[in-house]
Amino acid sequence: MPYIYTEEVRAIRKALKDKLPDWKLSVSKSSNHSSVTVAIMAGPIDFTDYMLFPPKYGHWPTDQEVEDQKATLRLKPYLQINHYYLDTNWEGEALELLNTIKATILETKPVRTIVEDADYGSIPNYYYHIHLGKWNKPYKRRP
């Protein structure tokens, strides 16, 4: 059963604050103690400048679709980031930041498989998530 202790979340929070002092981050544990979520709350970059839009369903998005997605993110800056596809969805400073967050989480508390199951796949010792803002408090760009 995936589980992460409060002390481990505290260690991840401290490591991230040490590595990224210019960023406001929220590091929290889920209510069922199976995951840790790192929310990027404020920082010096506009993430829409670094978004990549890979093809979906076999076709590349049109320029209008890309602009619509960027406009939506500017209006409500909250995004759940897929940490498995950072290289295909982000570039530049945003990619560097996201890779640093991911590496710091994994250095502080390595993910290992605790159960190999043919029906459900492998189950890790805990899950982690990276968000841009929170659903009720958006990301704010600050100089």
Question: What does the overall shape look like?
Answer: globular
Which spans have pLDDT < 50 for at least 5 consecutive residues? Answer: none
Rounded Rg: 16 Å
Strand content: 15-25%
Termini separation (Å)? 42 Å
- The number of E-state strands comes to 7
H/I helix tally: 4
Number of domains: 1
Task: Please give the structural blueprint.
Layout: H1 6-19, E1 24-29, E2 35-43, H2 63-75, E3 79-81, H3 86-89, H4 92-108, E4 113-117, E5 121-124, E6 127-132, E7 140-141
Helix pairs in contact: 1-4
Report on the structure:
The structure is a single chain. This protein has 143 residues and is of the alpha/beta class. The chain has one domain (6-141). The protein has four helices and seven strands. The chain has helices spanning 6-19, 63-75, 86-89, 92-108; strands at 24-29, 35-43, 79-81, 113-117, 121-124, 127-132, 140-141. The strands form two sheets. Strands 1, 2, 3, 6 and 7 form a five-stranded mixed β-sheet that branches. A hairpin with a 5-residue loop joins β1 (24-29) and β2. α1 (6-19) packs antiparallel against α4. The chain is globular, with a radius of gyration of 16 Å.
Concise description?
Helices cover 34% and strands 24% of the residues. It contains 4 helices and 7 strands, in the order αββαβααββββ.
Properties at a glance:
globular; 143 residues; alpha/beta; 4 helices; two-stranded antiparallel ribbon
